[in-house]
Amino acid sequence: MSKPRKQIILGAYLGGVNHHTVWSDPAAGSQIAFSSFQHLARTAERGRFDFFFLAEGLILRERLGLIFDQDIVGRPDSLPVLAALAAVTEHLGLVGTINATFNEPYELARQLASLDHLSGGRAGWNVVTSFDAFTGQNFRRGGFLHRDDRYVRAGEFLATARKLWDSWPADAVVADKNGGRFVRDDTVGAFSQHSEQFDISGHFNVPRSPQGRPGVLQAGVSPQGRDFAAGSADAIFSPYRHLPEAREFYQDIQARALRQGRPAGSVKLLPSASFVLGDTEAEAVERHREITRTQVSGRTAQILLETVWNRDLSGYDPDGPLPDVGPDPEAPLTIQGRARLAQDPHETVAGWRALAEANNYSLRELAIHVFSRTEFIGTPVQVAERIDSFVQNDGSDGFILGSHLTPTGLDEFVDRVVPLLQERGSLRTEYTGTTLRDNLGLPAPAPAPAAASAA
């Protein structure tokens, strides 16, 4: 019996936080103007994408104590942007990255539930954590959270948010004979949470949302992160670009989810990806070379490697060999405000040296290779086939697609690749549901028992 064809999940990512966007392109637009967000979201919906995704930048980053001259300047808050997009889209999920370290459960649960109502059940939350005191200085409690406690807080935060969302039964609000509406009983919305991270109680004042709860996305590669994501997330960002390692990660996450009592297929895996199209493969390859050389200038390459070396590498030739010194993880951070990219910098650098030696990579060429996303390069037919093959072979359930060009870069994919995926039977031709969970093929969660919601 043949395996049923998987439907590809697609998210649209507006770039800006990292180096992938080419702002020097004459066609590049604003990362702040609503017209940019609107254009990308409407393009994604025209392509029958599942959701629109926003990353988060909470602080202007620094390098060696000075504002990082290659960072993006200006990053609007995710929730107002997503709320505005709810008014100009009908089916597209709206997912924002929001930090569980620097927010509080009641306020954030209320904001997300409100977005879910405003959008008709299309809200999603990418749960991220931080132990970064530099970013934390912007917030009331500062960088108080120890690295080992970040998943403790995130787990308690998410459990508390779900308790709040579940505190309203579906039939909590009823109408009287005069057309008024009232709450059925005084226990509706009651909650309390007394744990290591939170000590709160009260009544939640937003009714149960159209999809039950907002969808939850998460990223985790360490064993602790994988367990948290497999037990709590509806979708997980996968960092793996090549099919063998991607399939191994896919199988591991599904096995962890099953061990935690979740049904098969309840967690979707989604790597970030980019694409470059050409009328011929050679044209696409050459176009890709030009784009990546623009994305990763010599200076950008030095800075990207500094995030792992934790040294000033400005004196090294970008087109020469890798630095002849090792990383210095114990020194004060060279780059402030950016997540650490390596659990073990010495191990990472050793692997990079071996990679550079095997491929004769310069410093810049190594940076281009190791900091790229999953890339689909070729004619539209080739790109459609490669995306479909990756998903059908359980490398992932789909991709979150970004482009080097904001906000119009996705147009070419929607016009030239989406019809081919639809012809293959791997992508919807019309939306069949109304919520983010419908788009992702996930059932609405059952509300918690009334007695448990206030426990």
From TrEMBL:
Domain Luciferase-like, first and last residues per copy: 28-392
Keywords: Flavoprotein, FMN, Monooxygenase, Oxidoreductase
Matches recorded under InterPro entries: Diverse_substr_monoxygenases (IPR051260), Luciferase-like_dom (IPR011251), Luciferase-like_sf (IPR036661), NTA_MOA (IPR016215)
GO molecular function, one term: monooxygenase activity
Superkingdom in the source lineage: Bacteria
Annotated FMN binding sites: 97, 151, 222
Keyword Transmembrane helix: no
Pfam families: Bac_luciferase
Family stated for the protein in its record: Belongs to the NtaA/SnaA/DszA monooxygenase family.
PANTHER family to which the protein is assigned, alphabetical: ALKANESULFONATE MONOOXYGENASE-RELATED, C2H2 FINGER DOMAIN TRANSCRIPTION FACTOR (EUROFUNG)-RELATED
Protein name as catalogued: FMN-dependent oxidoreductase, nitrilotriacetate monooxygenase family
